[in-house]
């Protein structure tokens, strides 16, 4: 028998988490015309072009025009012949993504962090700073979800000795030393997520959440064939979830639905999934901060809640004020499905 989610029918609060897994495609969707300064936000297959890595890779007979960036980097490092070139590539990646900057207006990442609560988790494969910066500028408005960065991030820094994680430029709260940047690049064909203490800790937290989550959203993550280990870890933890047969999964991606169904079918339980081309169609944005409750009420209690979508606005303050109204109801300790009726 499947295990029910942690739904308290007296308060209508579902304590089971919602997890969002982000790939580079999420940032591409959020910034199709580039960042605040028009700087392109590349996905993995565009890195060689935008970082002008072709000449460097060709000098080592590694680039043939259509190869995958991660595979090429893996070949370069695994050969052990060109450590200076490997360091140069990592420096270029670090520099490019560190320069990306979100606009002052509300973006998809602001909506995303505001759509979840403290019990929830966002796990990102992206190196860009958009998620971390959105979290920082919304953190005073409402309580926000936890974050993990599965491949490191230009905005996140650590103290390995004290096992402290914070934003770049911060001081370790224990030893008072300046935090150091997280690693971004490492070979993928023999990827070992326990080789670096920071990466290991991030994956351990995600695995813990996956075993307890009730709703899983995958946004813009392609699960590349070069990253077999990541897919394996995700799938094993998800299948170990005792609520798996009742839980829901959403895929947000612009690829054809048939292709996405084949790619992710191992993660699906019967028809407990949805595939959407836009994040605006997801439970996250149709029932912000209430996704797990709304799904449980519709499927377990046979008492669907009415849709309460985010207002579409570019004004960040107005968006935060709207989210605070939901937060006020959360602080009352009981959710109604009609969060604005009591105001």
Looking at CATH, the homologous superfamily of the largest domain is TPP-binding domain
Written as H for each helix and E for each strand, in order along the chain, the element string is EEEHHHHHHEHEEEEHEHEHEHHH
- Average pLDDT, all residues: 91
Assign the structural class, choosing from mainly alpha, mainly beta, alpha/beta, alpha+beta, or little secondary structure: alpha/beta
Q: Would you tell me which CATH topology of the largest domain applies?
A: Rossmann fold
* Strand line-up across the major sheet: 5-4-3-9-10-11
Please summarize the sheet with the most strands. Answer: 6 strands, parallel
Oligomeric status: single chain
Strand tally is: 11
Just give the CATH class of the largest domain: Alpha Beta
Radius of gyration from the alpha-carbon trace, in angstroms = 21 Å
pLDDT below 50 for ≥5 consecutive residues: which ranges? none
CATH architecture of the largest domain: 3-Layer(aba) Sandwich
Total individual domains: 2
- What percent strand? 5-15%
The N- and C-terminal alpha carbons lie at a distance of 41 Å
Instruction: Report the helical percentage.
Output: 25-40%
**Alpha plus pi helix count:** 13
What spatial form do the alpha-carbon principal axes imply?
Answer: globular
